[in-house]
Fold:
Amino acid sequence: MKVDIAKYYPIIPVFAAYAVMFLIGSKMSGMWELIAMLAFYCALGQAFNIFLGMTGYVDFGYVAFLGVGTYGMALGITRLSNVEGLGIGIVIIGFLMAGGMSTLLSLAVGAVALRLRGAYFAIATIGVNEGFRYLIEGARLWNGSEGIIFIAEMNQIFGREAASAMFTFWADVFVLIIAALAALVTLHFMRSKIGYALTALREDEDAAKVMGINVTKYKIIAFIASAIFAGSLGAAAWALKTPYVFPPEVFEIHYTIEAIIIVLLGGAGTLLGPVIGGLIYGISKYYLAIILPGFQLLIFAPIIILIIVLFPEGIVGMLKNRIRGKALERYII
Amino acid sequence: MIFEQLAGNLIQGLVLGAIYGMATMGLSLIFGVLRVVNVGHGAFIMVGAFIALILFNVLGIIPILAIPVALVVGLALGFIFYYSALRKLIDAPELASLLATFSMGVMLEEIVKLIFGSEFRGYNWAVGKITLSMTVLPMTKLYACIGSVLIAILLYLWFNKTRAGTAMRSVVEDSEGAGVCGVNVGAVYALSFALGIGLTVVSGVLLTMFIPVGINPYMGGALTLKAFVIAVLGGLASPYGAFFGGLVFGLVENGSYTLFALIPGVEPFALTRFFSFVMLLLILLIRPTGLLRAK
Structure:
């Protein structure tokens, strides 16, 4: 079997963008904080795009996967902190737990919610997110509403200095890696049977079914892949960066909304879209908070409405139409 | 006594449930006609709450008289939002209208925050109370309950006895067919959205008559989620179903709280919320047309 390398050319601009971000952050002093935030938004968009962009299903409770991922890492670290000789391995175990827990949740949610469509699906997923949060608080699961604080464990395992490097540098590097991996998986899906099936499903689910496509299978594949990246993102960007987890924070619906905005702004279902959307959203949020503190949302809300009405395809979606038939088409999808 | 306490809470739940039901009718009306889920629903309730608060605290106007003011403000907001944005999103994928209505809610919250600040406020309208053996019902709560029922009846009459109401029902049934028969579908969409928002803003006034404290620009988030559960109980697309769903929800919420409070070592408030979302998922899975079969 001959692997057609040209199929994977579109990953070049995405990886280039992440590499430039890393270089700017690590070489220019004072930029790392901004880059870390941008990396988080790019990764969030890239992970969510796998499901939202490719299937057209609106998961309004997406943040739940980030939430359980955060808990996965937190539980891994707190429960294993006394085991000798794990070292950095504890972080790997934490990521595995985050991925495993988000997979389990996505299977459970998928079994219920993926039978529903459109608005019913959106409402069901909000229900799952809120329900899960209140289950943790109400039944005092995993320390309930008091949350888990594990800065002492982090210091004990890695030593004060290495733990601090984890919070301020490595956690963000992991986020960038997650974003890049999510982009790679997105492109792989796009260039394989999965992508074609999902495109058919997004355009017309009933017609796709009649054509003999096993829509349920492909929906679940996209849902689980998207959930695993979300779980890992929660583990890296929330648990490793800020070593505590509180239910109201990690199940906050605003993160889902931010993810939707990023995907829509860049162009749903495109590979480069989440990068562009994440950068624009992150940069404008960062500078608005400096220039007009307290007014960000008031400015954002009407702009979002404008974008939805005027540019429903997003930036990369429009760009794709412009460059159709030109050489650039091979690199930007 | 636990039974006395339970009975008392259930009476409170029934009164609150009528208000909940009325507060969800707008959501169901909009979904029924436009097939748009108003994710900013709670923010419109919040606007109503502020109208009641400001009229009472600043001008001394009693909340009952705030209802027509709230209706006018709500209708105006509805028409503005419909013609400025929503009109172009009716046929777009759900994503667009979900995000647009959410942004509308955020916009309202931020404007209200800008004007009034984000601290919790309340008002005190004391007009006596009824004392029962198991609970105490202030008259304001009773007024709010009666007001909700009256508005629901008026809406029913309006739907079934007026031309505009008939046109709306025809669009719910089959929007293309209605258009062919000469119904101005665009106008029906606009009117339905405006009316839905109007009802929602009015419900904000009624809600503060039940709970006259905790008024804050961000009070709507939790109310939106409750409204979703209630709307699903009623079949999502039916305003009367929503009213019925509100009664059920009020009873279940207060009843289950009383029972969860008996379990040691849990947080009954959070468990009540958890229980309501379990209910939401079960209904969606087993009976998506709602507890009453939608017409």
Summary: The longest strand of chain B covers residues 129-131. Chain B has a mean pLDDT of 89.
